[in-house]
Design brief:
Radius of gyration of chain A: 24 Å
Radius of gyration of chain B: 15 Å
Number of domains of chain A: 1
Largest sheet of chain B: none
Oligomer: heterodimer
Order of helices and strands of chain B: HH
Order of helices and strands of chain A: HHHEEEEHHHEEHHH
Largest sheet of chain A: 2 strands, antiparallel
Number of helices of chain A: 9
CATH topology of chain B: F1FO ATP Synthase
Distance between the termini of chain B: 16 Å
CATH architecture of chain B: Up-down Bundle
Shape of chain B: elongated
CATH class of chain B: Mainly Alpha
Number of helices of chain B: 2
Number of domains of chain B: 1
Largest interface: A-B, 12 and 13 residues
Helix content of chain B: over 70%
Number of strands of chain B: 0
Chain lengths: 344, 65
């Protein structure tokens, strides 16, 4: 396996998240004022005593803010004391999800490096384990993409599966999400009313899943164009060919154009669905754990949460599989048709 | 009472859809275990399509309000 590509993919994915994109674009009360949530100003009051995660990852370090003008509903600048009113907008910050992202990525890179440092012909130990993972994954993707395409694109699909799987499982380690800065209490180790945990599940942040989905979408366009060319790309979506200019032919042409438009909509929904599926599942899973933990009370929370913990282990695996499988299937839908046409 | 009824309804519908896909996929695998690979692929695609309805509902609801 070419581990330079593995490194490249991880680096790209990790560098892509734009932490303030969704945090700042969020229109509700949880926008700029809550960037101060780690000081516990209003994050807790906003949730009204409910034990739940904040929707977005909480900025921890290096908050970079700019002043932007405030506009009212009519698009006019809001004036205050004769000057245009401004409010702070978060542009960049290191959030708790990013911290976990880097930890997981670093761990994966280290394991990959250590396992392939002295490769042996008959693998044992860590090398054996890593080879087992990689070989079963590539066999799995070969079933979907075909041998050639699978080898070409495995660096992405393999990385995405391994990365999502281990970041989902990392988010389940006790301590992730329960250690951090607490509301109204400057103590560090204080699990009640926690407003800014030090760690937060990687995919419980929409920015991360959005980065992965958009990264895949760009790659998908690149692979499709490479496999079938711009003309084939167009013809694949708008399958307008093989009908004469009879009444029936023109009628069919209209239908095919309509089907093409539907296809365009379906394709453009794909990255959105990808990112929200992963985010929704992981975020909901963390919320379930927190709610059930609170339900069990101070002494039996750990017992109440246990079945859901195993459910979340399963969900973490299934969602990693679904993300990797769906991206692979989307690629194979576009790229393998061409080969089949020629084979006939 | 506040809430988003349309998202709930969409979730209900897509949950039924995903359930049907899963049931039929399991049934198909039982009938023909050799075809489990293609069945899994098809099942995941259609489950994803059924699931996508919820996201569309959430977006339309957000932008419509």
């Amino acid at each position: 396996m070419n581990f330079r590509r593995f490194l490249l993919a991880i680096t790209l994915i990790v560098a892509l998240p734009m932490p303030a994109l969704f945090a700042a674009a969020d229109g509700n009360a949880a926008s700029s004022t809550e960037t101060a949530a780690k000081h516990g100003d209003d994050a807790h009051g906003h949730e009204g005593g409910h034990h739940g995660l904040p929707k977005n990852a909480v900025p921890l370090f290096f908050e970079y803010k700019v002043d932007v003008q405030v506009f009212d509903d009519a698009g006019e600048p809001v004036m205050k004391d004769g000057k245009p009113e401004t409010k702070e907008k978060l542009l960049f910050a290191i959030t708790n999800s990013m911290v976990v992202t880097w930890i997981v990525a670093l761990g994966l890179i280290l394991v990959a490096q250590i396992a392939t440092k002295k490769p042996k012909l008959v693998p044992s130990g860590l090398q054996n384990f890593v080879e087992w993972i990689v070989e079963s994954l590539i066999g799995f993707f070969e079933g979907i993409l075909g041998a050639k395409l699978a080898r070409e694109t495995f660096w992405f699909f393999g990385t995405i599966f391994i990365f999502i799987l281990f970041s989902n499982w990392f988010g389940l380690i006790p301590g992730v999400g329960t250690v951090g800065w607490a509301h109204g209490n400057p103590g560090f180790f204080h699990s009640e009313h926690l407003s800014a945990p030090l760690f937060r599940g990687v995919n419980a942040d929409l920015n991360m899943t959005a980065a992965m989905a958009l990264f895949f979408f760009a790659l998908w366009i690149f692979w499709s164009l490479k496999a079938i060319g711009p003309g084939g790309f167009f013809l694949h979506i708008f399958n307008v060919k093989g009908h004469g200019f009879t009444v029936m032919g023109i009628f069919l042409l209209l239908i095919y154009i309509f089907v093409g438009v539907v296809e365009v909509v379906s394709i453009s929904v794909r990255p959105v669905a990808l990112m929200f599926r992963l985010y929704g599942n992981v975020f909901a899973g963390e919320n379930i754990l927190e709610t059930v933990m609170a339900l069990g009370g101070p002494y039996f929370g750990w017992l109440a949460v246990l079945p859901f913990y195993f459910l979340e282990l399963l969900v973490g695996f299934v969602q990693a599989l679904v993300f990797a499988l769906l991206t692979a299937v989307f690629t194979s839908l576009m790229c393998s048709h061409h080969d089949e046409d020629h084979a006939h | 009472m506040t809430g988003s009824l349309h998202i709930g309804l969409a979730a209900l519908g897509s949950a039924i859809g995903v359930g049907l896909v899963g049931a039929k996929a399991a049934e198909a695998t039982g009938r023909n275990p050799g075809a489990s690979g293609p069945i899994l692929t098809a099942a995941i695609i259609f489950a994803a399509l059924a699931e996508g309805v919820v996201f569309i509902a959430i977006f339309l609801g957000k932008s419509g309000m």
